[in-house]
Design a protein that fits this description.
Elements: E1 2-6, H1 13-24, E2 28-29, H2 31-40, H3 44-54, H4 61-71, E3 81-84, H5 90-102, E4 109-114, H6 117-125, E5 127-130, E6 136-138, E7 157-158, H7 165-179, H8 181-188, E8 192-196, H9 201-209
Parallel strand pairs: 1-3, 1-4, 2-3, 4-8
Antiparallel strand pairs: 5-6, 5-7
The structure holds adenosine monophosphate.
Residues 9, 30-32, 35, 52-53, 56-59, 64, 85-88, 92, 162, 171 line the site of adenosine monophosphate.
């Protein structure tokens, strides 16, 4: 089962992706997480993308294409994968389609997380992420049991560099201009399902995937 979670930053894709990973035993692939790890490890790629990411711009399509191509080759993707935060524009979606074709594979579902931008800004400003396992928390409605400590692995929580108000505004602009057109793109391919980005988004998707709905 190959899934794409699409929607604005802060829509809850990452949280839902993790639950789907557990439920269906297929890995989450998040280019955001992969790139932040490169930055943390101070690799050449990390140095190349750090400035771009801190401004909320998109990293070059070629970089994403290579990450996609290499990542889905790995053994754990045999049963499928959950793309969280990619593709981010039409060009990347076309590259993915090409890669899938070469592999005789296809995307099964694209879920679009619907949420007003005002809610997104509030969510992102209050988001905290575990340094170790990447679990997301929210200081308003999903507080960790102990301040700044991950409930799951005990890792330290931090605020992402790009979760600051000015950068958030630019990320939403980039989203509207470059990522939103993917909604129509996947609609036309009959792959798109709209999901209300609220507390039961995971359950809705799970039910759809288990064939209980639709
Ligand atoms: P995310 O963790 O998905 O919110 O991504 C954080 C940042 O990483 C984005 O604002 C971009 O700078 C970069 N990024 C992540 N995924 C992509 C992608 N598929 N294409 C281009 N840039 C990306």
């Amino acid at each position: 089962m190959r899934l794409i979670l699409l929607g604005p930053p802060g829509g809850g894709k990452g949280t839902v992706a993790k639950k789907l990973e557990e439920e269906f035993n297929i890995p989450v692939i998040s280019t955001g997480v992969i790139l932040r790890e490169e930055i943390e490890r101070k690799t050449r790629l990390g140095k190349k993308v750090q400035n771009i990411m801190s401004k909320g711009e998109l990293v070059p399509d070629e970089v994403i294409k290579e990450i996609m191509r290499e990542r889905i080759k790995l053994e754990d993707c045999k049963g499928g994968y959950i793309f969280d935060g990619l593709p981010r524009n039409i060009k990347q979606a076309e590259s993915l389609e090409k890669i899938n074709k070469e592999r005789n594979e296809h995307i099964d579902y694209v879920f679009y997380f619907e949420i007003p931008f005002a809610a997104v800004i509030e969510r992102l400003i209050n988001r905290r992420v575990c340094k170790k396992c990447n679990t997301n928390y929210n200081l308003l409605f999903n507080h960790p049991q102990k301040d700044n400590i991950c409930d799951i692995c005990g890792g330290e929580l931090y605020q992402r560099d790009d979760d600051k108000k000015e950068t958030i505004k630019n990320r939403l602009k980039v989203f509207t201009e470059q990522t939103l057109p993917l909604k129509k793109y996947y609609q036309e391919k009959n792959l798109l399902t709209m999901i209300d980005a609220n507390w039961n988004a995971f359950l809705k998707i799970k039910n759809i995937l288990k064939g209980l709905q639709k």
